[in-house]
Amino acid sequence: MSDRVKVVVTGAAGQISYSLIPRLVDGTVFGNKKVDLELVEIPAVLNKLEGMVMEMEDSFFPHMGDINITDNFADAAENADWFLLVGSIPRGIVLNGKKIEERSDLLKVNGGIFIDQGKAIGEKGKEKAKILVVGNPANTNALIGHHHARNETQLWMAMTMLDSNRAKSFLAKKASVGVDEVTKMTIWGNHSPTMYPDFENVLIGNQRGADVFSDLQWIENEFIPGVQQRGKAVIDARGASSATSAAKAALDTVRAVEHKTIDGDCFSAAIVSDGSYGIDEGLVAGVPLISDGQGQVNLVRDFSLSDFAKQRIQISIEELKSEKEAVADLLD
Ligand code: NAX
């Protein structure tokens, strides 16, 4: 196994990346490997990345390998093992004289970025490279990227770990246990307010959530909407979207893939559906996953879903289907 790992991060001058990048080289994610970093940004903010590189050099990270900044994604993709696609165009920005406000415009503008990035990853990224899409709309961006990559050895994921971590925190408080006692958490569907946090299959210690959480009023009126709307609550309170917790979630996802999943646990990310659990084949939807720690990630296939869960998941799947329709012209 190589003693180096090459990681490409887009949106590298953004607020999530500011928390994320230093922690990629602190030795906790990739162990003893040297981490080569390719930091990608749009030309207008490349100079900000020069400051980032200086800070990285000034931080004394023994695990940091080469660090390069570029606005050329295709060059950065060459032989990369991991792609953390954080970069995206936010809602509200004016592009070519038009304000990007509608979700359909947002889908198209960001989807467009993922055509070229997908092609470059498929052609130039390593066989079995791992791709984590963080930039929103994450699931549909991943759908577009995967479609254009045309490389089935690679694993495309969209991030639902932040939602999963949030859900664990809500459930731990309710059950009066530490967050470390909450395992086997899955976010089903889209990373959007339709996501479904699975309180029934989760484990609190050794007990199934379905046996622990009998207060269904709380589940329906506080837990599910609380997790679904947490991103907005953070924006309302902080005046900016989640950054530290989003960076931690991206690191948790990389760690979950790189290390063998503990028996009986799983982790949450959205991957391309093979039709299991009634999720339309080809959609990128949140599901329970396990890793063998050797680069192979598998779907956990034996979750039982109540009618309530199935109905909630279907709402999110319908949303993913409509997002796919909205970007149909980007999928040729
Ligand atoms: P910022 O606006 O701070 O940073 C985004 C960066 O991306 C900017 O520096 C921009 O120049 C860059 N960028 C835009 N187009 C690019 C391209 N084609 N190539 C390379 N870089 C490009 O946003 P930040 O707060 O860091 O959030 C980044 C994305 O994460 C947003 O789309 C956000 O909605 C999304 N999130 C996703 C989460 C998830 O759980 N999946 C949670 C957190 C976050 O909201």
What features would you highlight for this structure?
nine-stranded mixed β-sheet, three-stranded antiparallel β-sheet, 332 residues, binds ligand NAX, L-2-Hydroxyisocaproate Dehydrogenase, Chain A, domain 2, single chain, alpha/beta, Rossmann fold
Describe the secondary-structure layout.
Blueprint: E1 4-10, H1 15-24, E2 34-40, H2 46-58, E3 64-70, H3 73-77, E4 82-85, E5 94-95, E6 98-99, H4 103-124, E7 130-133, H5 138-149, E8 155-159, H6 161-175, E9 182-183, E10 187-188, E11 196-197, E12 203-204, E13 207-208, H7 209-212, H8 216-228, H9 230-238, H10 244-258, E14 267-272, E15 284-291, E16 297-299, H11 307-326
Parallel strand pairs: 1-2, 1-4, 2-3, 4-7, 7-8
Antiparallel strand pairs: 5-6, 8-14, 9-12, 10-11, 12-13, 14-15, 15-16
Helix pairs in contact: 1-10, 4-5, 6-8
This protein binds ligand NAX.
- Residues in β-strands, percent: 15-25%
Radius of gyration: 19 Å
Low-confidence stretches: none
Give the helix proportion (percent range): 40-55%
What ligands does this structure carry? ligand NAX
Q: What is the count of β-strands?
A: 16
Main-sheet strand order equals: 3-2-1-4-7-8-14-15-16
Fill in the CATH topology of the largest domain. Answer: L-2-Hydroxyisocaproate Dehydrogenase, Chain A, domain 2
- Global shape: globular
CATH architecture of the largest domain: Alpha-Beta Complex
| Strand and helix order | EHEHEHEEEHEHEHEEEEEHHHHEEEH
- Helical segment count: 11
Q: What CATH first level of the largest domain would be assigned?
A: Alpha Beta
Please, what is the CATH homologous superfamily of the largest domain? Lactate dehydrogenase/glycoside hydrolase, family 4, C-terminal
What is the mean predicted local confidence, pLDDT?
A: 95
